[in-house]
Design goal:
The protein has about 350 residues and is mostly helical. Helices cover about 70% and strands about 0% of the residues.
C-alpha cells in the first residue's frame, strides 16, 4: 500500500491539513488498517499449521464480527461520508454480532449495581455493546500522531497475552500475539516516517479487537479481575471521558466537535511544534512522531500494574484512581505552562 500510493493516493490520501487535530504536512494514505486485517487473515493459515483449530475458529469468527466496524471506518477514510454516529453504530453492530456468535459478553464487573445488571441478558448485552463501542471510539480519539495509537494497542495486547499465558488460555494468548505481529507490520511504516496512517478503519478495528479479547479473557477465566481490562485501557478511556467533560461542561460545545486540546495535542504544541530547527516536511514529521513516546509511557503506567495484579480487583481499582489523578495533574500543569521538567525536550 505504501509502494502503490501513486495508484490510490488520490482517494486514500489525507489532504485535510486545516482541522485542529491534524498535524501532518503532506498527503498520506490512511488505509493502514487494511494491512493489519490482512495480517490477521494470514495468521489463520499459521494457526492451522501449528494445530490450533480452536484459536483459528475464534479468530475467524472475531474477524467476521469486526467487519461492520472496519468497513464503516474504511469507507470514511475514502469518502468522508460516514458520521461519527454512523461509525459508532457500526461498531455496536460488531459487538452485537460477537455477543451472539462467540458469546463475548460481560458477566461480571466487580462494581456494585452493575454486577446485578449483567446477570440479565439485556443488561449484559447493553454493557458489552457500550464498552466495545466506547473503547473503539477511544482508540480513534488518541490516533493523532505517528505510532501513538498503534503502539498503545501493542502494549495492551502484550499485557493480554501475558495474563492469558498465566491462566493457561492459549487461544486468547495466540490471538493477542497475532494482533501484535499484524500491528508491528504497520508500525514500521508509520513510525517515525509517517508513510501510512492507521485511519478510522484501522483505529475502530483495533479498538474492537482489543475490547473483544479482553472480554473473552475475563469471561473464560474467572480468576482474571474485570478491573484488569479497565485499568489496561484507562488511558484512551479516560482521555475520551475527560474530552466529553471538557467540551460539554467547560466549553459548552458539542461533544463530537473536533478540537486540538487533547493531551497528546498539548504535548506536541508545548514541547515539539516550535522546537528549534528546520521547518521542512521531514523535520515536522519527525516532531510529530516524537510526541508519541510521551503517551506510550502513560499507557505503560497502566499496563505494568495490570499485569502484576491482574487477579486483585481492589489493587487495580486503586491504580485506576492513581492514573486519573496523574492524568489530571499532568494535563493542568501543561495547560498552565508549568510542565514537569522531565517532559522538556532537549533541543
Amino acid at each position: 500500500m505504501v509502494r502503490s500510493v501513486k495508484v490510490h493516493g488520490h482517494r486514500s490520501g489525507d489532504r485535510d491539513f486545516t482541522k485542529p487535530q491534524k498535524f501532518h504536512v503532506v498527503a498520506v494514505p490512511r488505509i493502514g488498517g487494511l494491512g493489519i486485517v490482512l495480517g490477521l487473515l494470514a495468521a489463520l493459515g499459521t494457526l492451522l499449521m501449528v494445530d490450533s483449530e480452536e484459536t483459528m475458529r475464534y479468530l475467524l469468527e472475531l474477524l467476521i464480527c469486526a467487519t461492520p466496524a472496519f468497513v464503516a471506518g474504511f469507507v470514511q477514510d475514502f469518502t468522508e461520508a460516514i458520521t461519527p454516529k454512523g461509525r459508532l453504530l457500526a461498531t455496536a453492530l460488531s459487538a452485537l454480532m460477537a455477543f451472539m456468535l462467540i458469546n463475548a459478553s460481560i458477566r461480571v464487573t466487580d462494581v456494585p449495581g452493575l454486577d446485578w445488571l449483567v446477570t440479565f441478558t439485556a443488561g449484559s448485552l447493553f454493557l458489552t455493546v457500550f464498552t466495545v463501542a466506547g473503547l473503539a471510539n477511544a482508540i480513534n480519539i488518541i490516533d493523532g500522531f505517528n505510532g501513538l495509537a498503534s503502539m498503545c494497542v501493542i502494549i495492551m495486547l502484550t499485557a493480554v497475552a501475558y495474563v492469558a499465558f498465566q491462566v493457561g488460555d492459549r487461544s486468547i494468548a495466540l490471538m493477542a500475539l497475532a494482533g501484535i505481529g499484524a500491528i508491528l507490520g504497520f508500525f514500521v511504516w508509520n513510525f517515525p516516517a509517517g508513510l501510512i496512517f492507521l485511519g478510522d478503519g484501522g483505529a475502530y478495528f483495533l479498538g474492537f479487537y482489543l475490547a473483544e479479547l479482553s472480554i473473552l479473557l475475563i469471561q473464560r477465566n474467572p480468576r482474571v479481575s474485570p478491573m484488569f481490562a479497565l485499568l489496561l485501557g484507562i488511558y484512551p478511556v479516560f482521555e475520551t471521558l475527560f474530552s466529553v467533560y471538557r467540551r460539554r461542561v467547560l466549553r459548552g460545545r458539542p461533544v463530537g466537535m473536533p478540537d486540538g486540546a487533547h493531551l497528546h495535542s498539548l504535548i506536541y504544541r508545548r514541547f515539539l511544534r516550535w522546537a528549534a530547527g528546520e521547518r521542512t516536511a521531514r523535520e515536522l514529521t519527525r516532531r510529530n512522531s516524537m510526541t508519541s513516546p510521551y503517551l506510550w509511557l502513560l499507557s505503560t503506567m497502566s499496563a505494568i500494574p495490570s499485569v502484576l495484579w491482574w487477579h486483585n480487583s481492589r489493587v487495580l481499582q486503586a491504580f485506576i484512581m492513581v492514573f486519573a489523578m496523574t492524568y489530571l495533574w499532568l494535563y493542568w500543569r501543561i495547560v498552565r505552562f508549568r510542565s514537569p521538567r522531565w517532559m522538556l525536550l532537549r533541543r
